[in-house]
């Protein structure tokens, strides 16, 4: 029997509350589809940092590399500065494992109230392909003139051709795979004088390899506005690390699915494990009450199954999610206007598999 | 009689079509309020660049400095790369005249269909204060290794304490002026390792000078989503050049007013002229047909009157805009679902003064 070993990092806050529901779902679907699944639990989080000064052990990356995939909850807690906690765990995993694609669906689901007027399931359905290893997220820079009137900070973004071309190719390939031959690029070449004109020139160059794919591009400011005004027009949207980050929270924002949307950090060559997580963060404001919506974590697990080569299992999980959400009698967490807890909603989804 | 000299730069595309309507409005309201207004026309645009290689003459800034204020249409045209046209005209004006504040209203107006569900005029009403002279918009950087496999581009953002503190103070002061004691800061300190932690530390430091003002901050990704999910919660939102840019297109996006919203580039010390423009661009797709909505340009003129010290005139213009928009029988341009042209809508607003 084929068996997958999954590294499980619940992390902080509601990460630890939603994770058990995803593991229940995975165990159930493994039974139904007849494959084995083993979890290795890693309790690395902000508490680890407060205790040891590190978010994960020195050989953390080595440990994770033994697994087929990584399922992550959420990282970050108020007592630890965000740039410490994230750059100590989430970002090193993305980079050391060359997970240079961050893939996120933007999809209006049944049973989830949409903040946009006059939209119904099916109207909004596209994908964001985000560069996940370089660009604006860099440690190049620092504070200068500290404590003097000429104090300031610098931050340098780096776009390599290597890193830019591979994410653009992934986006075009993904459009072909979906059979939706249209890629939109996020730019800001009118303001960011060097990086974005370069990005645009690579988009144009790589696009020539895909003459069957329609291309367009928008500056990030108007693109964000168009997500709200005309979300129907998108198929695959490709953006840099920062622009992809913004668009892939805004996307779930327009579909009412911030608590529900998943995020896949993929190494397409499969030389390293990929990592799957919900889009939402650790949500300290509601942590400890077991009222967080587990659907984002469960949907992330479904994307993991797809990546592992278990499309049937992935499909069963997605069907169970949709069936649960569209049933008005099913438990609903407070973010969906209900009063149910994390565990009730999780259990309902398990039952629907 | 007090008289204002206004430098008028219609620019490109629909900029040249909406500008005459704003000038008509200004002439009319000057008559009603009994002050003088003189226009100096500057035909600087992308055609100038194609002809001369420069967007404006060498002494362009000197010429403009003779005026009390600048009214700009829109800059940019497809045959000229955006980063050339903008860095040759719009951005130098902002910088040479120390217009370090970009102030933009986000307001749901009567008669404009809102893309968000269940919102009515009054529900969305806040201000964006954007840093307008430094930050991510920089010319520091370039392409390296051109033509080799290790090719790439770098782009450095610079945040000085001088530039950061003054925009933050403006935001806090503006909150006090409005009597809405709440400032929200846009950050991304979890991803942008140096610049945004620095921004956050200055926000905290300057906030201490304003103990009466409530402060909160969100990462730009979730902040963009919250503009869609809960726009009621904002009063004054302050952001860097790039984040402010994105949020101040998204804001008009959620209120359906992309074609209608204005943008004020302000030098608060009044040592230099300030500049007023619509948020929309030159819109090459509809240029030449005189169907563009002139309200953004006219509202920009109203913000200019306010800045010049003519609040009564500014109020009359705003009332005329609102009266026109809420009248179902008034002319409506195609972006508002009508069939009227730029001139008809402009004339209707003039009549309502
Ligand atoms: C045209 C462009 C350079 C400009 C900017 O990004 O500042 C525009 O988007 C704006 O917001 O005024
Ligand atoms: C937590 C943060 C560093 C992260 C990011 O910006 O990449 C998050 O927002 C995400 O999108 O996964």
UniProtKB/TrEMBL annotation, chains A, B:
Statement: the UniProt record of this protein carries the keyword Metal-binding: yes
Organism of origin: Acetobacter lovaniensis
Protein name: D-malate dehydrogenase [decarboxylating]
SUPFAM superfamilies in the record: Isocitrate/Isopropylmalate dehydrogenase-like (SSF53659)
Record GO terms (molecular function): D-malate dehydrogenase (decarboxylating) (NAD+) activity; magnesium ion binding; NAD binding; tartrate decarboxylase activity; tartrate dehydrogenase activity
Range of residues in the leader sequence: none
InterPro entries for this protein: ICDH/IPMDH (IPR050501), IsoCit/isopropylmalate_DH_CS (IPR019818), IsoPropMal-DH-like_dom (IPR024084), TTC_DH (IPR011829)
UniProt EC number: 1.1.1.83, 1.1.1.93, 4.1.1.73
């Amino acid at each position: 029997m084929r068996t997958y070993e999954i590294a499980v990092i619940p992390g902080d806050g509601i990460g630890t509350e939603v994770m058990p529901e995803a593991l229940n779902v995975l165990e159930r679907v493994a039974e139904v589809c007849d494959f084995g699944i083993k979890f290795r639990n890693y309790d690395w989080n902000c508490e680890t940092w407060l205790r040891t000064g590190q978010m994960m052990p020195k050989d953390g990356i080595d440990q994770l590399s033994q697994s087929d995939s990584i399922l992550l909850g959420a990282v970050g807690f108020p007592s630890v500065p965000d740039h410490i906690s994230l750059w100590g765990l989430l970002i090193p995993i993305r980079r050391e494992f060359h997970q240079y694609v961050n893939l996120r669906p933007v999809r209006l689901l049944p049973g989830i109230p949409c903040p946009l007027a006059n939209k119904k399931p099916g109207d909004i359905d596209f994908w964001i392909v985000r560069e996940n290893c370089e660009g604006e997220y860099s440690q190049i820079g620092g504070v200068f003139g500290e404590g003097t009137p000429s104090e300031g900070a610098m931050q340098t973004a780096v776009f390599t051709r290597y890193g830019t071309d591979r994410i653009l190719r992934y986006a075009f390939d993904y459009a072909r795979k979906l059979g939706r031959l249209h890629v939109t690029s996020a730019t800001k070449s009118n303001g960011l004088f060097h990086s974005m004109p370069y990005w645009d020139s690579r988009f144009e160059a790589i696009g020539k390899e895909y003459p069957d794919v329609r291309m367009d591009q928008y500056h990030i400011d108007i693109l964000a506005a168009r997500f709200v005004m005309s979300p129907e027009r998108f198929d695959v949207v490709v953006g840099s690390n920062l622009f992809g980050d913004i668009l892939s929270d805004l996307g779930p924002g327009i579909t009412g699915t911030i608590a529900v949307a998943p995020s896949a950090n993929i190494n397409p060559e499969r030389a390293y494990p990929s990592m799957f997580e919900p889009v939402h963060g650790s949500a300290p404001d509601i942590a400890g009450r077991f009222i967080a919506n587990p659907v984002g974590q469960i949907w992330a697990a479904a994307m993991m199954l797809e990546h592992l080569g278990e499309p049937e299992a992935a499909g069963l999980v997605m069907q169970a999610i949709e069936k649960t959400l569209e049933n008005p009698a099913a438990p609903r967490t407070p973010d969906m206007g209900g009063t149910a807890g994390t565990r009730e909603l999780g259990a309902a989804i398990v039952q629907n598999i």
